[in-house]
Design a protein that fits this description.
The complex is a heterodimer of chains A (about 260) and B (about 280). Chain A is an alpha+beta fold. Chain A has seven helices and ten strands. The chains are: A alpha+beta (about 260), B alpha+beta (about 280).
């Protein structure tokens, strides 16, 4: 197949269509900074979707659970070995992304005779105090996008764009506190969820009203539960990551 | 030689294990031990003669009404020389467990580092905390792997491992204290444990306080427990040259940490200074 370039490109395009089709209905993930760190939020049905990678790095993904698990272990192992061999301060997200994950994604995607990873990944790293938070979005083809203000992953690029637009319209310059950030992240998630269902019905309209947001949150929470992982730089000890309990999530929702 | 299953005595038995003089009729025992622990070959090996367990320090842990209080002095010595007066011997391992070390610092710090990484890696990869039994066995293995160094007299590590099991029923104290021997066996000490060269001076005091004191150790509040620990360390430093007391001039305080349901807290120098007012 490789001796005919146009067939290789065709095969890559087929693979792209196949992966995007598989990802389309994935539950989106939203990453937002708040006054004491950063959070990742999604709504999941049973399986955990937000993970601790290292002291200051967390991960979430949409895609096939087996691929998520394999790549989660890859990045977790690499970070642990690096920290053990030198120091935990020597582990950073830039290195993990560019030297470990991105080329692994790209290699699997372009090796058209092998299996592709059906995955989109969102990682977040917090610095000390006011030091910049970094969100890193890795696409299934190895493309990396780094953002500071906020980041999302959704089933398609269109869904992600609509979620980013919603965030941009709702966010202001001041960093929100945890309950406010959680509330905004949940509404942004609902925008992505609503759109992924619309695309299923071949609708082009990307406008989502507050009423629809409230409706989809209520519907989705009948079978799923909100999952929130935070990197909180005020936590004592080296590890800054923890998952919020359902009680904490409920309390945060009630304060808004 | 009939060691009756007491392996530690077997290791210490000089007459039987001495290489020179060919007095021993059990050369196979020597070879067995040599091979088992991969000891370096020496022309005049004297296995077992250097397994001196007490090391220059005093660390102590006891249960109080909220959990565990665990402490260590700050002195590091080499022979009769004081080489460092700000050594940290009470090391947090994860959110609810602490290792208090006595013995060769290089090995002790490395054991603490490996232990910390092991617990973190288990949690991150398996998505759950390592069980209490799993934590104890990990430390056992590390201590046992260190036995060749201990046998050569340069790297014995005898720690106290204390933790709080957060899943314990709220009406009960989830604090647990474990004491290790040089071979890695662990024993749960219900109310208190102490190790290091200064421990012999305070172990009996702890027993006395727990049995006949006005307030049983486990019923003390944090203030009472802190004052008790500071008094014990002061006593140890009085009789053990390798244990430091409170250095008022340089403001060097012992390290005291509490482990409770909420996690680990390092008691501040200011708080310790207030408590010292009751000690002196």
């Amino acid at each position: 197949m490789r001796d005919l370039p146009y067939r290789w490109i065709e095969a890559i395009q087929d693979r792209r269509d196949y992966i995007e089709d598989q990802l389309r209905l994935g539950s989106p993930v939203v990453g937002l900074p708040y006054t004491q760190g950063s959070l990742l939020l999604t709504v999941s049905k049973g399986a955990q979707k937000i993970f601790e990678v290292h002291d200051r790095i967390a991960l979430s993904a949409i895609g096939h659970p087996a691929d998520i698990e394999r790549l989660r272990m890859l990045v977790t192992d690499t970070a642990s070995v690096q920290a053990f061999q030198s120091a935990t301060e020597d582990v950073n997200l830039h290195r993990l992304t560019h030297y470990v994950l991105a080329h692994t994604f790209k290699q699997a995607f372009e090796a058209i005779v092998g299996e592709a990873y059906i995955i989109k990944m969102l990682l977040v790293e917090i610095g000390n105090g006011d030091a910049a938070t970094q969100f890193t979005h890795i696409n299934y083809d190895g493309n990396v996008k780094v953002q500071q203000e906020a980041a999302v992953i959704g089933g398609t690029t269109e869904i992600e764009d609509a979620m980013q637009n919603y965030l941009a319209s709702e966010q202001n310059d001041a960093k929100p506190d945890l309950p406010t950030a959680l509330h905004l992240a949940l509404k942004t998630w609902a925008v992505g969820r609503e759109l992924s269902q619309r695309f299923e019905e071949a609708e082009d309209n990307t406008e989502v009203t507050d009423e629809q947001i409230g409706e989809i949150i209520n519907t989705e929470l009948e079978n799923g539960e909100i999952e929130v992982g935070i990197l909180d730089f005020t936590l004592s000890g080296d590890t800054k990551f923890r998952l919020l309990t359902q009680d904490e999530i409920q309390a945060a929702r009630e304060t808004n | 030689m009939n060691h009756k299953g007491d392996f530690l005595s077997l290791l210490k038995h000089k007459d039987t294990l001495q290489v020179d003089g060919e007095t021993s009729r059990e050369p196979n025992t020597k070879a067995l031990i040599h091979d088992a622990f991969q000891l370096p070959s020496q022309e005049k090996a004297t296995y077992g003669t250097t397994l001196e367990i007490p090391e220059a320090t005093t660390v102590v842990a006891m249960r109080y009404n909220e959990g565990i209080i665990i402490a260590g002095d700050r002195r590091a010595t080499a022979g009769t020389a004081v080489v460092h007066d700000r050594a940290e011997k009470v090391l947090p391992i994860d959110t609810h467990s602490v290792l208090a070390i006595s013995g060769a610092p290089a090995m002790a710090y490395e054991i603490a580092r490996v232990l910390k990484h092991s617990f973190q890696y288990f949690r991150r990869s398996q998505l759950q905390e390592l069980s209490v039994e799993g934590k104890l066995r990990t430390l056992s293995r590390l201590i046992r792997e260190n036995l060749p160094m201990a046998m050569q007299g340069i790297g014995a590590v005898i720690p106290i491992f204390a933790l709080y099991a957060p899943q314990t029923d709220e009406s009960k104290n989830g604090g647990k204290i474990y004491f290790y021997d040089a071979l890695g066996a662990h024993f749960e000490n219900v109310d208190f444990a102490t190790t290091g060269s200064g421990s012999i001076w305070i172990r009996g005091v702890l027993r006395y306080l727990d049995r006949w004191g006005e307030t049983q150790l486990e019923n003390m509040d944090q203030q009472q427990a802190t004052v008790t620990i500071l008094r014990l360390l002061d006593t140890a430093s009085e009789y053990d040259a390798a244990t430091s007391g409170y250095n008022a001039k340089a403001e060097i305080f012992p390290t005291l940490k509490t482990i409770t349901r909420q996690g680990i807290e390092t008691l501040s120098d200011q708080y310790l200074a207030e408590c010292y007012a009751e000690v002196t």
